[in-house]
Amino acid sequence: MKKLKKFSFIIISLFALIAVSIFGYTKYKKPSYDGEVALQNISKNTTVYFDDFGVPHIYADTQKDAMTVLGYVHAQDRLWQMELMRRIAPGRLSELFGSKALPNDKFFAGIGIDENSEKAIAELDKNSETYILANAYLDGINEFIENGKTPLEFELVGVEKEKYTLKDVYNIFGFMSFSFAMAQKTDPLVTDIRDKFGMDYLKDFGIDGSLGITQLKSYKGKSNDYAEISKSVAGLLDNSPIPPFIGSNSWVIGAQKTKNGKVIFANDPHIGFSQPCTWYEAHIVTPDYEIYGYYLAGTPFPLLGHNRNYAYGLTMFENDDLDLFQEEENPGNSNQYKTIEGFKNYTIRKKIIKVKDSASVTLNIKESMHGPIMNGLLTTLSSQKPIAMSWIYTQQKNQILQAVHALSHSKNVNDFYNGVSLIHAPGLNVMYGDAQNNIAWITSGKLYKLDKSVNGNFIMNGANGIDDKREFLPFSKNPSAINPTWNYVYSSNNQPEAIDNYLYPGYYLPQDRAKRIDGLLAPKNDWTSTDVQKMILDNTSSVTPSVVANWLTTIDQ
């Protein structure tokens, strides 16, 4: 009996020791929210206050100092999330998780975000404030990597920390942009339905825009400038470290419709729950600048933000900025594809994917003039003929970093409009309201018209010289409304009205949310912040009753 008691005591003591060790170890790994940290090349006057929610409020003498500290605290809170985010676009998740991540890596390595990032950085003005502040942010991240505590996940996976570069920032923005695109998930499915069942079967899908009854109204006004392939791709996105945007609401109410005569701004991006969450909140204050922003992991400038002068947010535009083309290969030479000028050689891009505990995989990616060939990059692609992906993000000049910097540093609505114009992809409804009582809805994206005979909702013909004709439109043709006469703007991913009699093609969501929002905003002229809070939580549909009524007529009594 004494031996049994002694043995039990040893076991209990051992478990207690293990529990205490684990608790102490995890406690040691936690971020530091008090004390002093010596960072290189910043003023001693730089201070960070963490509020009860863990949000850092950074006070510094210069923006450069503030950005360095932002990078440091962002890394201490979210370094593992950053690590996952920066590895998606270049196809580097297999280095962490082995062959299970290989399908994801093949796809993203193939579509060319990483190469586009290199090109964008080469074209960036190295003397610009954008470049200087972004690198200050990276300096802060790298100081934490050098001197801070290593997150437990790195040790569990067995990967060494690597310093961050500007290409990581661009790759994160690139992945975000791709997650906003819809064509790669929709066009193959719609094409398959058409080929199997015919066009009549697709009438109820509303791909001709017929279901977009409640449309966003454009308005070109003046500012109040008082101060001057379907499931497989969907699966890749569903398993990503950042939950996909699945639809969002936003509205800005003009001073003429509010009780206190000031603009009220509301923005609700619908993102699936994750831990840690998608956004990182931070507040920066310097003598010449202030912003309370919401940042993606590993990015220096916020996508949503506000200060004492203005607020801005976004929803998904849902415009079509990605097309799929079926190429026709030379029967006598599989390295060539047909064009109206004759057969051309594919260009070959080589990409090596390192795989944990296994041999590296070499991709030889074929590219036509339309873009990379997706066969082999998507294992579920059944087409025997090559399918190329043409995406505006990788084909147009990439100024996403300059754009996001501009949105968070605008002095007035005109600055903000010009900042939005730099975003060629993704397509966004960017919302704005300021203390000078300006309100605005501005769409981002490099828009284009296809030939009248072409429907971009399907996989298109890459060889006929017609399907790939594009008429690119000036930014002034993008749908927008600045200080409209009806005194409010809103967006819920719904169809904008036609511009110059042209209805922009896209993958817009049904009108239910849009109709409800418009129906609430239009009649009321004494809005308060409390009213808007209640509206955000509103769950009434003005469309569902008619849908139910139609269903009931088909049910046998």
Which helices and strands, and how do they pair?
Blueprint: H1 2-29, E1 47-50, E2 56-59, H2 63-88, H3 94-97, H4 102-111, H5 113-122, H6 129-147, H7 152-157, H8 166-180, H9 183-197, H10 231-238, E3 245-253, E4 264-271, E5 280-286, E6 289-295, E7 304-306, E8 310-316, E9 322-326, E10 329-330, E11 333-339, E12 342-345, E13 347-353, E14 361-367, E15 387-391, H11 392-395, H12 400-407, H13 413-420, E16 428-434, E17 439-443, E18 448-449, E19 460-461, E20 471-472, E21 480-482, E22 488-491, H14 512-521, H15 529-536, H16 544-553
Parallel strand pairs: 2-5, 9-19
Antiparallel strand pairs: 1-2, 3-4, 3-22, 5-6, 6-7, 7-8, 8-16, 9-15, 10-11, 11-12, 13-14, 16-17, 17-21, 18-20
Description:
- 34% of the residues lie in helices and 20% in strands.
- About 1% of the residues have low confidence.
- The chain has 16 helices and 22 strands.
- With 557 residues, the protein is α+β, with helices and mostly antiparallel strands.
- The protein has a nine-stranded mixed sheet with strand order 1-2-5-6-7-8-16-17-21, covered by helices on one side. It has a three-stranded antiparallel sheet with strand order 4-3-22, with helices on one face.
- The longest helix has 28 residues.
Describe the structure concisely for a colleague.
The chain is α+β, with helices and mostly antiparallel strands and 557 residues long. It has helices at residues 2-29, 63-88, 94-97, 102-111, 113-122, 129-147, 152-157, 166-180, 183-197, 231-238, 392-395, 400-407, 413-420, 512-521, 529-536, 544-553, and strands at residues 47-50, 56-59, 245-253, 264-271, 280-286, 289-295, 304-306, 310-316, 322-326, 329-330, 333-339, 342-345, 347-353, 361-367, 387-391, 428-434, 439-443, 448-449, 460-461, 471-472, 480-482, 488-491. The strands form six sheets. The protein has a nine-stranded mixed β-sheet with strand order 1-2-5-6-7-8-16-17-21, with helices on one face.
